Amino acid sequence: MSARGAAQITERHLFDCIIDARSPAEFALDRIPGAVNCPVLDDEERRIVGTLYKQQGAFEARRVGGAMVAANLARHLRERFADKPQHWKPLVYCWRGGLRSSSMVTWLRLVGWDAQQLAGGYKRWRQHVVATLDQLYPRLQLKVVCGATGSAKTRLLHALASHGAQVLDLEHLACHKGSLLGALPGQEQPSQKAFETRLAAVVEQFDLSQPVFVEAESRKIGRLALPTTLIERMRASPCLEIVVPFEERLTFLLRDYAYLGDDGPGLALKLNALRTLHGNEAVNRWQDWARRKELRPLFSELSALHYDPLYARSQAAHFHQWDARRQLPLSGLDDSRIEQLAAVILENSL
Fold first, then answer.
1. CATH for 140-347, options being 3.40.50.300, 2.30.30.40, 3.30.750.24, 2.160.10.10
2. 17, 38, 94, 175: which one is catalytic?
3. Least packed by Cβ within 10 Å: which of 30, 152, 315, 329?
C-alpha cells in the first residue's frame, strides 16, 4: 500500500473493517461482502448536492456538501467508531475512490487510526467481480444435478454440502426457486450486481481441482440473468439425473410450495403467463383451483402438462452430455433417502 493510503482490492482482507462511504441506496444495490455502510452523504443529501452541481456549479455543491459531510463524519465518530481501539485499521471506499472516501480517510487518520482508501472504489470492485467470474467459470469441474420438477434437486445439493462437497447453490444466491412460481415469500431478489458479487464470493473459495455440484438452470432465475460463461460451462458439463415417480414428486411439491396456497388470487394471477402456451380453457381451470387453494390438482396438471414436457425438451436440447448422463433412481424423497443418495454420489465422484 502506498504512503497516501490507497489499498488494492486484493489487500482488502488485511483490514479490520471495510467501510462503504456511499449513500444507503448505493449500498443496498451492491457492496463489497462484509462492508458496513457509513455514508458521508445520505440519499437526500446526495440528491441535493448533485442538483446544486448541475444548477450552480462545483463550488456551491462543495460548500453545501462539505457541511453535510462534516456533520455526518462527526456523527460516525461519536457513534459508529466511538469504541474503536487505537490500532483499528479500516478500509474505506466510495464510488470511484474520490472525495467521499478520501474525506472520511482524512478524518480517521487525523484521529490516529491507520485508515486506507480503496483505489478505484466500488467501480474497481465491480471490475474485479466481472473478471473473477470470467476467469474462474471455465475452470470449474461442474457436475450438473438434473431432474423433473419436484425431484428435490436443491435438497440434494444441501445434502451434498453437508457431506463436505463443493456446491454452487444458484437459487439460494438468487433468492428464487427458478420457475414461474419460484418467488420466495417475503424475500426480494438481490440486484443483478449483488447477485454476481455473491457468485464471485462463493466461486473464489472453490478448490478448482475438485468437483462442484450445481443444479441445472435456465438462463434466468426469476429476474436475474446467469452469466453467459457459467451457462456455457454448465451445458458442457456431465449431468446427474434424479429419477423419481410422479406421485412422489407431487407430494414433495405440495410440501415445498405449500405457501402458495396462502394467496390464491395472487397465484391465479401468475398463471396468466401460461395462456399463450396452454390456452384459456386450461389456464382458467388452473386459476379456479388456485383461487380455491386446491393445490393438488393444480400442481398435478402443471407438472404433467407444463413442467415435465418443458424439462424433457430443454435438457436434451441444451446439455451436450445429456445422452451420457448418470441416472439416479429414487423411490421416495424423504431426508434419509436423499442423504443416502448424496453419499453414493460422492463415493463415485471424489
1. 3.40.50.300
2. 94
3. 329
Tens-digit pLDDT profile for residues 172-214: 999 999 889 999 999 999 999 999 999 999 999 999 999 999 9
Is 3.20.20.140 the CATH classification of the domain at 6-129? no
3-state class (DSSP) for residue 221: strand
Assess contact for 139 and 233: CB atoms under 8 A: no
Distance CA 68, CA 59 (A): 14
Task: Please answer whether residues 226 and 220 qualify as being in contact, where contact means their C-beta atoms are separated by less than 8 angstroms.
Answer: yes
Three-state DSSP state, 290: helix
Q: Are 30 and 197 in contact (CB under 8 A)?
A: yes
Measured distance CA(298)–CA(106) in Å, rounded: 62
What gap in Å lies between CA 137 and CA 229, rounded to an integer? Answer: 6
Q: How far apart, in whole angstroms, are the C-alpha atoms of residue 64 and residue 87?
A: 33
Reply yes or no on whether 94 is catalytic: yes
Q: Are 17 and 7 in contact (CB under 8 A)?
A: no
**pLDDT average per 10 residues of sequence, the chain (350 residues):** 70 97 97 97 95 93 94 96 97 94 96 96 97 95 97 97 97 94 94 97 96 96 95 97 97 95 95 96 97 97 96 91 96 94 85
Report which of 164, 167, 227 is spatially closest to residue 197, judged by C-alpha positions.
Answer: 227
Print the SS3 string covering 279-320.
Answer: HHHHHHHHHHHHHCCCHHHHHHHHHHHHHHHHHHHHHHHHCC
Which residue ranges make up each domain of the chain? 6-129, 140-347
All residues at 6 or more sequence positions from 268 whose CB lies less than 8 Å from its CB, including other chains: 286, 287, 288, 290, 291
Q: Judge contact between 101 and 27, C-beta under 8 A.
A: no
Strands (E), the chain: 6-7, 17-20, 36-37, 90-93, 116-118, 141-147, 166-168, 211-215, 220-221, 224-225, 239-243, 326-329
Question: How much of the chain is in helix, strand and coil states, percent to nearest 5?
Answer: 55, 15, 30
